[in-house]
Specification:
The protein has 433 residues and is of the alpha/beta class. It contains 16 helices and 13 strands. The longest helix has 17 residues, at 211-227.
């Protein structure tokens, strides 16, 4: 088998066999296939696409390129959740204890963030004492005992995907739906999930800007799940403005706790109930979504979800007192309001600009080596649809840096205020299963 023949075959629009795809992934991971040939194949895939079986074969080849996690010692159906990413997205912090509280095991591996804010791991590490590293034995024991544990991702999960993603980033081949879908699903499958719920973000603050593209990606990932024996549901959710009212790390943990207490903003509560309900159905606890949704509302109102959060934090070395007293989380020294400069209605909040502002405050990383300031972030006082008067507080910036001029300018640019009230925001656009 020669790589040049496979490049030619895909360039002409033909289907690559399972053996041919395995040859490519094994060779590229081992270094016997050079970047320039892999780049050519990736570009051919961008132009010609891939058929359903090809995408499934590519996913499994990348899954098997490194370590895979065996979670068979954990009782029950392990349901994982993945978000394609957005500003203020703290859904994992909310749904994990909710789902665990009804008996679905949540054995989650998450990464650190690179960009506007930290990832789920960084947010949890803002809790004093919280330990993200543990042995596999301890991880399994925690899930069996408490139904929940979260650790950092293994260094050798899907090495083929890591190499390919770095190459796609510099060869303008990131936007291919089959390549995005197989990249995401290979990591979830390698992490040992039995079933997967995908939160596919769409809008100005998401990778997918248009609903048709988001539906295409969601459908591709659900098909992959079906073809490799993983029950998968995709929920397409809005990311035209930040999710919730908090953007950062410690302040997002605080907002997640508010939702578990039955409070918190409407968009966050609806998304948490939606995602957790689908996870509970896939976990085999409830027969249908409606039954699960009602149960998830009860699990919050009864305080059981909050108790599970406390147990989870304590089991991983964190100070569980933060659940009752969130002032024990890291607090910023400096706070700066951004005020409305006109009367009207908020018609748009550019999520990406808010995210970049948060990063400038210290809430995110521009490079992998950067340290995160857990206390840094932004609290939104106005969301899309809200009426404002000149001088009203739109948001407050929090930082341990006294100088915030660039961050303030970014936050100002994020808000659009107009005379006409906008249409009501849709939080959940579609569910694909």
């Amino acid at each position: 088998m020669r790589m040049v023949d496979l490049i030619h075959k895909k360039r002409e629009g033909h289907v690559l066999s399972s053996d041919e795809i395995n040859f490519v992934i094994e060779g590229y991971t081992a270094g016997s296939i050079p970047d320039y040939q892999m780049s050519a194949l990736l570009m051919a895939v961008c132009f010609q696409g891939m058929q359903e079986q090809e995408v499934a074969d590519l996913t499994m080849a990348m899954t098997n390129s490194g370590d895979t996690i065996d979670l068979s010692d954990i009782n029950g159906t392990k349901v994982d959740k993945h978000s394609t990413g957005g500003v203020g997205d703290k859904i994992s912090l909310i749904v994990a204890p909710m789902v665990a509280a009804v008996g679905v095991p949540v054995a989650k591996m998450s990464g650190r963030g690179l960009g506007h804010t930290g990832g789920t791991v960084d947010k949890l590490e803002s809790i004093p004492g919280f330990q993200i590293e543990m042995s596999k034995e301890q991880f399994i024991e925690n899930v069996n005992q408490y139904k929940i544990a979260l650790v950092g991702q293994s260094g050798n999960l899907t090495p083929a995907d890591k190499k390919m993603y770095a190459l796609r980033d510099v060869t303008a081949t990131v936007e291919s739906i089959p390549l995005i879908a197989s990249s995401i699903m290979s990591k979830k499958i390698a992490s040992g999930a039995d079933a997967i719920v995908l939160d596919v973000k769409v809008g100005k603050g998401a990778f997918m800007k248009h609903i048709e593209d988001a539906k295409a990606l969601a459908s591709e990932m659900v098909r992959i799940g079906k073809n490799v024996g993983r029950n998968t549901v995709a929920v397409i959710t809005d990311m035209n403005q930040p999710l919730g009212l908090e953007v950062g790390n410690a302040n997002e943990v605080e907002e997640a706790i508010d939702v578990l207490k039955g409070k918190g903003p409407e968009d966050l509560r609806i998304l948490a109930l939606t995602i957790s309900s689908h996870m509970a159905v896939l976990g085999g606890i409830y027969a249908n979504y409606e039954e699960a949704y009602e149960a998830m509302e009860d699990i919050i109102h009864s305080g059981k979800a909050l108790d599970t959060m406390k147990q989870f934090v304590e089991a991983q070395g964190g100070n569980a007192a933060i659940v009752d007293d969130t002032s024990l989380l890291p607090q910023a020294k400096y706070h700066q309001e951004v005020k409305a400069e006109a009367d009207g209605y908020v018609t748009a909040i550019h999520a990406e600009e808010i995210g970049l502002s948060a990063m400038l405050l210290g809430a995110g990383r521009q490079t992998k080596e950067d340290n995160i300031d857990y206390a840094a972030g932004i609290t939104l006082h106005k969301k899309v649809g809200d009426a404002v008067k000149r001088g009203d507080s739109l948001c407050v910036l929090h930082s341990n840096q006294e100088q915030m001029v660039d961050a303030i300018n970014k936050a100002k640019q994020a808000y659009t205020i107009e005379e006409q009230q906008p249409e009501v925001t849709t939080y959940v656009h579609a569910v694909i299963q």
